[in-house]
Write a structure and sequence with these properties.
222 residues, alpha/beta, Spore Coat Polysaccharide Biosynthesis Protein SpsA, Chain A, 4-stranded mixed β-sheet, 10 helices, 37% helix, 21% strand
Length: 222
């Protein structure tokens, strides 16, 4: 699965693609495949902390843009990887860029495993939540409903500026971050701008369960 993730990243045309891991087995397999591997500490609480360590190891400048493509996303469209980096590069006031896409049903809206995001008209993230946001107050018969048109699922693909990463790991978790278990809320709590745009291509689900793995294998022809 990691080989497929790495291949998608390579197809995106980044100046550098690094596989960050704390597992020697992963490092050996990916190095044999030709990947640039960075060994990191095993005690990182999140992938963002691991990414910050790699940025420090490599000496990347504060303005360097890094995309965090997680190892459970073998089906992430190359266009989306390119898009999130391009959006951050074009938005000088943002520290982070990420993607969203329309929800398919009200059941998704109310599912706490589906993270929702609301953003301003200019694409600035206002809040992320596992709760149903936005909430439709008027549900009387005949009331006009634009709920699903307004609601967006957050796609967990991020582009960061390295200067932001080095600061992020020094901040304590925010209260809202702890409540929602969403680390992007730490950035909002610190007043940083997160750029949000609709994904260029639909994003298939990541691989979180054995069933997800079998589904991904079917789509990839394996």
């Amino acid at each position: 699965m990691l080989w497929w993730v790495w291949r998608q990243a390579m197809e995106a045309g980044a100046q550098s693609v690094v596989v960050a891991t704390d597992d020697a087995r992963i490092a050996d397999v990916m190095a044999e495949a030709g990947a640039d591997v960075a060994m990191t500490r095993a005690d990182h609480p999140s992938g963002t902390d691991r990414l910050a360590e790699v940025a420090a190891q490599r000496g990347w400048s504060d303005d360097t843009i890094v995309v965090n493509l997680q190892g459970d996303e073998p089906l992430m469209p190359v266009a989306n990887i390119q898009q999130v980096a391009r959006e951050l590069a074009a938005c000088g006031e943002a520290s982070v860029a990420t993607l969203a896409e329309p929800l398919e049903s009200e059941a998704q809206l109310r599912d706490p495993s589906v993270v929702k995001v609301v953003a301003s008209a200019t694409g600035q993230a206002l809040y992320f939540s596992r709760a149903a946001i936005p909430h439709q107050r008027d549900t009387t018969p005949g009331a006009d409903s634009g709920l699903l048109q307004a609601a967006r699922r957050h796609v967990g693909l991020y582009a960061y500026r390295c200067g932001f990463l080095s600061a992020f790991v020094t901040w304590p978790p925010a209260i809202l971050e702890r409540l929602e278990a969403l680390e992007q809320l730490r950035a909002l709590a610190q007043g940083h701008v997160i750029r949000v745009v609709d994904a260029a291509e639909p994003t298939p689900a990541g691989v979180d369960t054995p069933n997800d793995l079998e589904h991904a294998r079917g789509l990839l022809g394996h």
